[in-house]
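pasting for the record
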Amino acid sequence: MNFASDNSWGAHPAVLAALARANEGAVMGYGADPVTARAEAVIRDALEAPDAVVRFVATGTAANALVCAQLAPSFGRIYCHEDAHIETSECGAPEFYAHGAKLVTLPGADGKLTPETLRKALEAGAGAGLNGGRNAMVSITNATEWGTVYAPDEVAALARVAHEAGLPLHMDGARFANAVASAGCSAAEMTWRAGVDALCLGGTKNGAMAAEAVLFFDPAHAEGFDYRCKQAGHVFSKQRFLAAQMLALIEDGLWLQLAACANAKAQALAEAVTAGGGRLLAPVQSNAVFAEIPAEAHERARAAGALYHLWTDRPVEGLDLVPLRLVTAWDTPEAEVARMAGLLAG
């Protein structure tokens, strides 16, 4: 039973089949191939953004770091939540690729920024003068690092604050499909219609082998981005293999089907947590459950071979409630979800 991460599970058969098809014959390299062209078009259609610039990279870290570098100068200030992946889990890649841009982290319940917190921070940053650097961009994650989801109106409220300050809004969408499936809105309503300027659209956590898409809704924001990707080693000679993965996920709506499946499994675990005397640490709105469970439930789960991350660095010995994170994937077996739910519920 593996609930450590959606990274732990496999690629969807449709993705593997698309890779096999892409492997047939010879085509031009570096993205000048029909598979890449088709994938870009399909993604623009899915986002209802016919003018968007779409590019492919292999990892979410590369996507986020390259977008941050594109939108923020080396003397810029990038505003994000204190638990944002770009702050906690990317080994300084955004700062590295932006040649020194500064991440400014802000608090917020359940992994979310609020417009008021952001507004105050931007006002303070604007008043910092030459010594403090210049406000450059705002980055949010959807679904968040706490598994919660910004609804379109919440995204729009943050976008208004950012745009009033003259800043672009970036969305880290490593689990964007989970957010859209949960909110029951369109991808367009979650992004550019709400004011998002750049989106990193994740595939790897949702059925791809290794593929992410980067979208700039205003082509002006993408000026020079291809050169930046090349310099960073993220223009692939056989790029059709990245594009084929995203094409297989997006073309017939598979990406949202897989995300909804993963979300439903997380809901089943969340219900078991509360039934077993535990408590949720954040609303379960995507495919992640953050909870505290009774120590005996933790011991049962570990004894049964369940894998998951504890959600603090401190020892759990002697705690009545053990904090943890459970993550489900599209292909987490239903039998394992049911077994884990039984262990949690007692």
